[in-house]
Amino acid sequence: MLTEHNKRKETPKPILSIVIPVLNEEGNVAFFSESLIKSLEQLNISYEVIFVDDGSCDKTWLLITEASKKNANIKGISLSRNFGQQNAVFTGLHYSSGKAIITMDGDCQHPPEKIADLFNAWQKGYKIVNTKRIDSEDFSFVKRFTSFLFNKVFSLLSGLPMSKGLSDFRLIDRQVADVIKDMRDTDLFFRGITHWVGFLATTITYQANKRYSGSTKFSLWKLLKYSISAILSFSIVPLKFSIWLGFITSLLAFAELVYIFIRYIQGISVPGWASTLTVISFMFGILFILLGIIGAYLGNIYETLKNRPRFIIEEMSGFINDEE
Prior knowledge:
2 domains, 10 helices, elongated
């Protein structure tokens, strides 16, 4: 078994590397590879395509190895299990050799023909070239709303601008990639990281293609976990909010005690056991929410202190002196 701590063997350094995380995309690998290579050949530069199989249970890895045997520019990395899309992207960055690296999804929704625009922007001196998705008419209301809500909440809590439609289809310079590889964040969130690191950046718009085959691997629950991890990774505002919420509820409780004491002195009993129990239950509910927020941050600290590798490689294909 290999981990990110293993020293990789020297490989020729292409100008452009394409990193593609995939999970159960057997219906897309062949078609996407053909479309991608066609667009890359038009650039007339040296390049490499790195597929990172994030624990697929179908024929995805078999198709990747077949593609790498047919084309020396195609390489594959198979992870020992599902480590998550962001860690799969990190794996590709770790083993990429290009002076510029483009990350994109393998479901054919990120158009390969836009690679030329990203590359041209990099040649003009931009270190980061983001892309902004223009939603098509068939893009569901739920996806539009959840994306809008996340961007607004993340921007508000983190202080990093997250514009509508920003995607994981982007180009980063080798200098930026080397900075990101040294980061030890427990929860990787590349959309936030590429804003946080700075460097000269620009944004290009694109129209998303329809998925060629299969269905999305992101369920509503996965999207929720992904969103929470991103916010916890870039903001401590929830902790500060917890302090203020605790302070306000304490003031309300103190005011209630003063009111009861005054009524007692006046010889007036204060009825309302039901309302009292309701308030107590509400306060306990807030308390457990605050403990949950604190626990989430402590969990992140715990995961960081364990210092486990972000990925474990089971097999590689297409690399010089493939490691067994």
